[in-house]
């Protein structure tokens, strides 16, 4: 009779063979969010430190001890650890000839962020794909706290620069592991190219900076909710989160939007999992379009 670990490994191998990674990703996210909602009282769902999020995920949800995921660096806004615990995903990948770098990125990273976001979306989970088993002796992971308003202020600065140049006044920033990897504004007017929205420019810059067209783990900040074109690029780039200031619906009432389809509707038509958070510095962003 196989033990619980072997059963889990065999189940994962079967899932990898029979289901698309995007389907598995959605199932894992649903399971983790359901556990959180069942086990964490509403009164305890307050913004927590990276340390508390780490403890909740690994000790209460996964059931590990700190010896399996020892912390190697910690500040009030960042906690970094190495995972040495016995891992069914690692075993399933090795037995089935799959690369953990591909599987963990495609199936498990965004669901972990979805779990952490239940506490506070400004807590961000990241995994290193250079330091990951079996390519390294451990898996390097971290949770950081990111100031959404500070990032949106950078987007606002870009939007103001856009206005000063004679463009439409949109700004966007892409952040990865707490670092700005793309920062841009719309240049459609000055470059005579209608595709050059702020988000398009920022995502392209981020891809060049990171040398990777897959932006899993990245956050796209935009002064205005991304239009269908820009949301589609975010989907193709596989960003983890979109954060905007003012919605398409509201800018439409100001006569500033052309395609009245919210970003969530575009995302729902795709297999890509992206969380959308609105109304960050909404009033400041709204002033750009009045």
Specify the CATH architecture of the largest domain: 2-Layer Sandwich
Overall helicity: 40-55%
Spans of 5+ residues with little confidence (pLDDT < 50)?
none
Oligomer: single chain
Largest sheet: 5 strands, mixed
Number of helices: 11
Quickly give the structural class.
alpha+beta
User: Total number of β-strand segments?
Assistant: 9
**Cα-based radius of gyration, to the nearest Å:** 20 Å
Mean pLDDT: 96
What letter string, H or E per element, gives the SSE order? HHHEEHHEEHEEHEHEHHEH
Strand content: 15-25%
Q: How many structural domains? A: 2
Give the CATH level 1 class of the largest domain.
Alpha Beta
Choose one word for the global shape: elongated
User: Span between N and C termini?
Assistant: 69 Å
As laid out across the biggest beta sheet, the strand order is: 6-5-7-8-9
Annotated CATH topology of the largest domain: Muramoyl-pentapeptide Carboxypeptidase, domain 2
GO molecular function: catalytic activity
InterPro entries: CMP_dCMP_dom (IPR002125), Cytidine_deaminase-like (IPR016193)
Domain CMP/dCMP-type deaminase: 146-257
Protein name: CMP/dCMP deaminase, zinc-binding
Give your account of this protein's structure.
This is CMP/dCMP deaminase, zinc-binding. It comes from Vecturithrix granuli. InterPro entries: CMP_dCMP_dom, Cytidine_deaminase-like. Pfam families: dCMP_cyt_deam_1 (PF00383). One of its GO terms (molecular function) is catalytic activity. The structure is a single chain. The protein has 290 residues and is of the alpha+beta class. The protein folds into 2 domains: 145 residues, Muramoyl-pentapeptide Carboxypeptidase, domain 2 (2-Layer Sandwich); 141 residues, 3-Layer(aba) Sandwich (Cytidine Deaminase, domain 2). Helix content is 46%, strand content 18%. It has 11 helices and 9 strands. Helix 2 packs parallel to helix 5. It is elongated, with a radius of gyration of 20 Å.
